[in-house]
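Take just one protein record:
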Amino acid sequence: MIQKLNQLISDFDTISDKMSDLQIINNVNEYTALAKEHRRLNPIVSKAKRYIKLFTDIENNKQLLSSEDEELRDLAKEDQIIIQEEINQLESELKILLLPHDPNDDKNTILEIRSGTGGNEAALFAEDLYRMYLRYAEVQKWKYEIISLNDNEGGGIKEVIVSIIGDSVFGNLKYESGVHRVQRIPETESSGRIHTSAATVAVLPEAEEVDIAINDNDIKIDTYRASGAGGQHVNKTESAIRITHLPTNLVVTCQDESSQHKNRDKAMKVLRSRLLEHEMEKANQERSSARKKMVSTGDRSAKIRTYNYPQGRVTDHRINLTLYKLEEIMNGNIEEIVNSLKIEDQKIQLNSLNQ
């Protein structure tokens, strides 16, 4: 452990030195990458330095335990107990912090929400989830951009795709993929009967061109006239874009912008992210069966959470977490759920390493 921590501190110091190099400062991409890694390592390094100091203290203290002075031996014993307790605590924290880092955690995110079973009520719930995530993004000081929004005639939304940009967006939101279920009494329900509806959430790491190379021969691009709101311009020009990725048959459409070029850029951004997700699913199949069942499954067909309005509760079925603070959660205060899922995922990773 000590050797590993010393190497980590050395790597951190190297990054710090590079960040003060004028050549690197002038290279925006390289400097940004180094700054991200510096931020990630900073809390680990501070704990690592403390752990090494305590480890040295406990070794020095062993000499005092063999002292002929009884009072000195007693003080050394007391110190040894206190130091050992802190070492044990730090060791547990460092084991989690030293787990293999998922490089996708630092990426921006493509968030997709689609209404599922339940008709208009499902569309209204999809809109509620959309608002919940945007409020969470605002609290985290992330930026977001709507890529595509498809309204539902009876209220709510059929589908929305949003790009969310900021620090560790995917690392925080990746546990949200799956089926979200709502139980509540619709406003149109005169008998007071509780209805169950659902919406599907997909969280994709936003892929850069360096992550996923798309051959021009592998895509088919169609243009057509956008439908819906947008005024006369929408009806006169073929600004909407449909991109089909021929090897996988993935189809992405975008019509929210009046510019064909902007719609194409947005559609390509979504396509790259879906192809990256496809690659990640292949990698996930190699993970242990326990890990696939839990937390970071990313399986869109798995029911992960229920929002029960009459009881004011939210239950995450993967970790059996129930919180009676529905209103707060729907207002974007999902930090407690996110942190609980992270902790459970870390436990699973630690167990798999120890097997």
Observations:
- Residues 229-236, 287-294 have pLDDT under 50 and may be disordered.
- The first strand starts at residue 109 and ends at 115.
- The radius of gyration is 26 Å.
